[in-house]
Amino acid sequence: MTLQNLLDRFDLLMDTPESVPKLRQFILQVAIQGHLSERNPNDTPAEVLLEQIQHEKQQLYDAGEIRKPKTVADVDESDKAFAVPRFWTWTRLNKIALGLRYGYTASAKEKEEGVRFLRITDIQDNSVEWTEVPSCDIGDDEIEKYRIREGDLLVARTGGTIGKTFLMPKVPVEAVCASYLIRIRPSPQVSSSFVKRYLESPLYWRQLSEASSGTGQPNVNSTALRELAVPLPPLEEQQRIVEAVGQLMDECDALEEQQEREHALQVQAGTAATEALQSADDAETLRPAWERVRGHFDTVTATPEGVDALRQTILQLAVQGRLTERDPDDTPADVLLEEIQQEKQRLYDAGEIRKPGNYSQPDADERLLELPSSWQWTRIGSICLESLYGPRYNKEEYVEEGTPTIRTTDMTERGEINLQDPPRIDVEEEELAKHRVLEGDLLVTRSGSIGTMAVFRHDYEAIPSAYLIRFRFPSQVIPEFVRAYLNSTYGQDLLGLSENSTAQPNVNGTSIKEMQFPLPSVEEQQRIVDTIDHLLSFCDDLEDLLSETGEHGEQLLEAALTDVSVDQQNGAPTGVTA
Questions:
Q1: 35 part of a folded domain
Q2: Are residue 4 and residue 138 in the same domain, yes or no?
Q3: Gap between the Cα atoms of 461 and 419, Å rounded
Q4: Does 29 map to a domain?
Q5: Are the C-beta atoms of residues 224 and 199 closer than 8 Å to each other?
Q6: CA 273, CA 381: separation in Å to the nearest integer?
Q7: What is the full DSSP assignment across 31-42?
């Protein structure tokens, strides 16, 4: 397969978000290996170019225009990642640059006049909005040292963009760069655009990674940059490479836009179908909405967003009572409520719980939907025995052996608890009796990963951490059903956690107990929970299938990239011209 054939057929390999970025990296790698450009015997060989650059640097040093050039070792055979084409040579970045310098250390000043102080955060999407760049105080004798100009390359040496490079276009103002940037000034006899492409290539990132000394973070400092091994072509060929890469990156842009459009259409189609299902008010509108989802099921579940929307639809329909049948032998919800109030009073009289609060029934205008006739609107406080915040402990109170504390990180997406090396407390029996979690307790996170919930279904001793709220329910309430409601669109809206919510998240014991709640019989609660578990397991399988398909797509892409053929005579892929 030729590179051009790969590009022509690339739509068949665009199954994952990483496909186009991988193609970009492949293009950069073959470019710096000389596979995208032709050799021209009239070009000035790179060895001669290096001699000219060294002569130029010596002249500039003698004239006092640059600092004394740093000495770096020649590239030995072990540093040569591949054999370079004829007229090329291996060299170090330091040998093709007039100098590398850390940026200026100063405080940014928000004023309209003065020398501009370019920071990492001022570089967005490979461009600079100079009217937004602050200024700094810098002496006249320092400006020339730190000045940035067209053709300079700025490398971030810290932060989230560490190692990334920005090629300075024309600089319309007097400016210096901040100290978290390293300025590379290539010789005029080298194409800054070619060096920029090299500094985006897999070879560059691999060398930075190898210099990281096991830290996992690229090692970006002036020494590491100076010693980078660079495959250097003649200047004329550098320009041909830059042009060829630019054309191929334009094609990548088009492929990426196509991928984004197709993904957006898939998400839009899937969301429209599930939203129609969620908004169906009665059986007459529910039936065609379901037929629409069933008829376009592949589209609905073609993306992770589509599977998430299906999960939310399942929860919403479940708490509406639309996924289960009524059973006349079930205990009606109003009778259930009376039993719960009697149970709460009995436990209070026995001194086992605090005095129950009084919660009014939701008014008609508070009711979020029309419930089945055997259900009842109530409030979570009316069906909850008690709520309790997890205790807070000082650092010195934690021990190696003791009662484990449950954290948000111990909660799974499916609402289960799986302890992961939890902190432990040596807690007195009286305090343990007060705070311990019992089987069936619902734990809700009130800070950090706010709104994360799980039901405790274990027989070991444990207590909730300080950022959790423990809710305990009587036997007439299935806590997994409460969790399903709180995770549904209705519950998320009331908690202020939905994407469309305009209110601040309101996750605390008082506000949750005031929330209106649709109560079915305990038997139907169990049927709903069982149905949800079954359908969400199916969604998990769909998500796994998407992941496997993505991995398979990546394998196909890797195989296709490996299979791209090159003409060994001049290094140019068949069908690709510079």
A1: no
A2: no
A3: 12
A4: no
A5: no
A6: 35
A7: HHTTTTS---TT
| CATH number reported for the structural domain that contains residue 66 in this entry | 3.90.220.20
- Going residue by residue through the chain (578 aa), what tens digit of pLDDT does each one get? 455 655 565 555 555 667 788 888 889 999 999 998 999 999 999 999 999 999 999 999 999 888 988 889 999 999 999 999 999 999 999 999 999 999 999 999 987 688 999 999 999 988 999 989 999 999 988 999 999 999 999 999 988 889 999 999 999 999 999 999 999 999 999 999 999 999 999 999 999 888 765 556 677 899 999 999 999 999 999 999 999 999 999 988 888 888 788 777 777 766 676 666 666 666 566 666 666 666 666 666 677 778 888 888 888 889 989 888 899 999 999 999 999 999 999 999 999 899 988 899 888 888 888 899 999 999 999 999 999 999 998 888 899 889 999 999 999 888 999 998 999 999 888 889 999 999 999 999 998 888 899 999 999 999 999 999 999 999 999 999 999 999 998 999 889 887 766 666 778 999 999 999 999 999 999 999 999 998 888 888 888 877 766 655 555 556 555 655 444 334 333 333 33
Residue type at 569 in one-letter notation: Q
Q: What is the pTM of this model?
A: 0.63
Is 396 domain-assigned? yes
Q: Considering its fold, how many domains does the chain have in total? A: 3
Residue 451 gets the label, from left (phi > 0), alpha (psi -120 to 50) or beta, of left
Q: Which amino acid is at 223?
A: T
Distance separating alpha carbons of residues 457 and 83, to the nearest angstrom: 62
Distance between alpha carbon 236 and the CA centroid of its chain, in Å? 41
Give the amino acid at 565.
S
Look at the block and give the residue holding tokens 């190696």.
Answer: 400
The residue type at 384? C
DSSP characters over 82-114: SPPPTT-EEEEGGGGEEEEEE-B----B--SSS
Which residues are 389's β-sheet partners? 469
In a domain? residue 39: no
Domain around 280: 1-21+234-329+522-578
